[in-house]
Structure formats: C-alpha cells, structure tokens
Amino acid sequence: MTSASGTDSVAPPQAEKGETDAAVPPVSASHFGVSLSALFAGLGLLAALQWRQPQDSTANVIGACALIAALIAAYDLYVRRVWRLPSAGIEGFSAARVSLARVAVKLLGLGATLGTVALAYWLFPEYHGGFYAPYWRLLRDIAPWGLLAALGYFWWMDGALREPRDAYWHLGCVLLGRERPDLGRIAQHYGGWAVKGFFLPLMVVYLTQQVDATTRDFQRMTAFGGLAVYDFFYDLEFLIDLMFCVVGYSMTLRLTDSHIRSTEPTALGWIVALVCYQPFWSLVENGYLRYDRGYPWGAWLAQHPFAQALWGAAILALLAVYALCTVSFGLRFSNLTHRGIITAGPYRWLKHPAYLTKNLSWWLIAVPFVPRGDWAGTLRACALLGLVNLIYYLRAFTEERHLSRDPEYRAYCAWIARHGLWARLGLRRLLRIGRRPGGARS
Questions:
Q1: Which residue among 19, 162, 329, 369 is the one 20 to 30 A from 388 at the CA level?
Q2: How far is CA 379 from the centre of its chain?
Q3: Neighbour count for residue 442 (Cβ, 10 Å)
Q4: Strand, coil or helix: what is 179?
Q5: What angle do CA 400, 403, 408 make, to 5 degrees?
Q6: What Å distances lie between residue 323 and 39, 73, 103, 186, 239, CA to CA?
Q7: CA distance 284 to 281
Q8: Exposure string over 329-368, b if 16+ CB within 10 A, otherwise e
Q9: CA pair distance 181, 57, nearest whole angstrom
Q10: Better pLDDT: 228 or 116
Q11: pLDDT over threshold 70, residue 225
C-alpha cells in the first residue's frame, strides 16, 4: 500500500494545487528504476542458483530476494538517505541516549508479539499440514540469525529514534503492569503483525511453487515452443510479483522508512482483502464464484494461430504491468497497510493499475463471454466474474478511504486527476475520475 505520515490533518489547499499543476507527480516513496535494476540482479542470481542447485528452490529464491532487498536498501540508505525523512522518526544515533532498561522492555514486547504469532500458528489447523513446509524450513534456517540481528537493531534504534517509546515499549510496559494499555496503539501494532503473519507464509510458499513452475516452463519452452513460451512468461511474471511480495512483507523497518504507519481500520477492508487469498478464496470460489467454464482462451483460438498469439501477448502485457506494479513498491509492498506513497512506475499513470490489469487478464484468460451452446451458462459465468471484479473494486475503495487520510496521497490523487492516463486520453470527464480522493494498491 502507500503513505507517509498517517496524520489526519489536511494539507493547505495551495500546496495541493501546486502539486497538481506540477509537470511531474509527487515524489515516490520508492525509486522505480532502482527497484527494476535490483529485479534484474535478483533474477540473474536466481537463474545461476537454479542452474547449479535446482533441487533447493526455496533457498535459491530467498537468496535472490535477499539480494533485491539489499540493493534497494543500500540505495535508500546511502543515496536517498530515507532515514532522514520525518516519517522515519529518526534524528541520528547517540549511544548516550540508549537505555538498556528501555531496550529490555522493548524486547519483552517483541517476545510477546512473536509469541502471539506463534500461538496462532499452533492453534489454527490451517498451518498444520505440509503446505507451509517451505515457510517452516525458512524460519528454522533464519530465525536464530534474525533474533540476533533484532538485539542489535533494537539497541541502535533506541539511540536513534526521536521518540524511543514505541509500540514494543508500550506493550512491554503493559505486560509489566507499568501503565494502562493504549488499546488503539496496541491494536495497530498487532494489526501490522497480523498482516505479516498471514501473508508472509503464503507468499513464501507461492514463491517456492512459482520458481519450480517457471523452471519447468523454461525446459518445456526450449523443447516445444508455441504455448510453452506463453506459459514460461506467464509464470515468470508472477514469480517477479511474488519476489517483491516476500521482500515487502519482510522489510518493515523504520531505518529504511518502510515501516508500517497504520493498518486498514475497517472490517470491510480486511474482509475484501483476505477473501482473495487462501484458505478463504477456495471456499468462496468453489461455493459461489467459480466463473471458469473449463474452456480457456488457448482452446478457443486453437484453430487460429495468429489470433491465439495476439491474444496471449495481450494477456502477458497486462500481467507484465501487474508485476511492474509490485516492483514499483520496492521494499514497501503489503496488503492492508500504509507504508509510503507510490507514484512511480505504472502508478505514474493510474491509481489502481495492478487491480485493473489483473482483472482484465482474467476476462482474457477464462473468456467466459464465449458461448458454448448454453447462453444461460455464458451469462452466469460473466456475472460471476463480474462479482469477482466487484470484490477488487471494494478493495480499491477501502484502500482509497484509508490512504486519503494522508495529505501526500490526496496530492497524488489530484495530480493523477489532471495528468494521469484517463486525463491524457480525454476520458476524465466521461469516467468521472478525480472527483474524490482515491488510492494506490495496498
């Protein structure tokens, strides 16, 4: 998602007007060119590792993600110096400001937080099967090193933060009985960890599966060609998307100004986001929203190779934009959170390019509008896919409402209304774009 301040204050009208009249959009929280360069480096490393050790795809792809994260973080820290931004809340490290007692209380809060997440994993049957095996293997390998890094990070941040009494400190104090709980602050804290605890396991598992699928597709492509080429690029685009998802959910650090400012405040926002992911999506799709009629576009156009090639290229183009949307976030991708306004990449042109291109691709892939002798079935399939599209419209709506609390985001929306794709095509008035604040993808 996106944002930078988390304040409810309204920016002066003159400042927002100045943003909309500018020739370029407001500065993006992530540098798209650097993220794209890091992507190519990560893919190069992944290809080399897969060539040498294809049986260890989890370790290979996590190594590639680590390289991507390191390159982007290095640029943000040493070139952009994002830790100096007001949103980071850092004023420079001083050992004299470090309080070991305060650090101990924060570590107690961290322990309670991790313990709550571990309890949820132990309690819910969803996490007991073999599906999440790659994630447990990853935790087993990196958890000891992560805890050691946390000790140094908490010590350093205690001497660097403008306000060192953060959410971990408040939670630790509550556990020690030192103060009354600030329920709003603790709810936001646990909300951010709920997002990470739910989505990171899924993304790690999906990423492991995707690198295996992409490797198989590459082998098939070199042997068969044809639709095997489409399959390779299809899976590669989702591989790119998932790599940056894993990076985003892992790098919620204040030092890189990629921390969580706030989480989605409404039940509707959580519901429409979570329903799109396992295990909830299987229940909803199988019982209510199965629009796929078992007649994909490849079969529909099998007798027309040129049209089939053009149709496949259109799908890949849409999904390429979708993948680049995730790349645009750099270290900051995450559902249901507010982590810095993204105005570069595809977000330079649209507020919701990821949702738009992904939903359009489903129409091209499933072709529910193609009749097969049953007009009622055709209409039903189109209506069901339309309901899926409605879910994503509601996701966009709730994200817009969340992000619109931020004056930087409102300035971005005003700029898009004047200079975005619809405005440039002359469709702004027709589509009623820009009449109220909107939102980039979470």
A1: 329
A2: 33
A3: 26
A4: coil
A5: 120
A6: 11, 20, 39, 33, 9
A7: 5
A8: bbbbbbbbbbbbbbbbbbbbbbbbbbbbbbbbbbbbbbbb
A9: 44
A10: 116
A11: no
User: Rounded to an integer, what is the distance from CA 204 to the centroid of its chain?
Assistant: 13
- Could you tell me the CA-to-CA distances from 76 to 32, 80, 82, 160 in Å, in that order? 12, 5, 6, 17
- The dihedral through the CA atoms of 200, 28, 79, 12 has a sign that is negative
Helix or strand run (H / E) with residue 338: strand 337-338
pTM of the model: 0.90
| Average pLDDT rounded to a whole number, residues 378-402 | 97
Cβ neighbours for 356, distance < 8 A, ≥ 6 positions apart: 350
Count how many residues are written for the chain.
442
Instruction: Give me the amino acid identity at 202.
Output: L
The pLDDT value given to residue 226: 72
Dihedral sign from CA coordinates of 288, 293, 294, 295: negative
Residue 213: Cβ within 10 Å count: 18
Would you call 287 helix, strand, or coil by DSSP? helix
Tell me the one-letter amino acid at 38: A
Residue 40, C-beta contacts closer than 8 angstroms, at least 6 positions apart: none
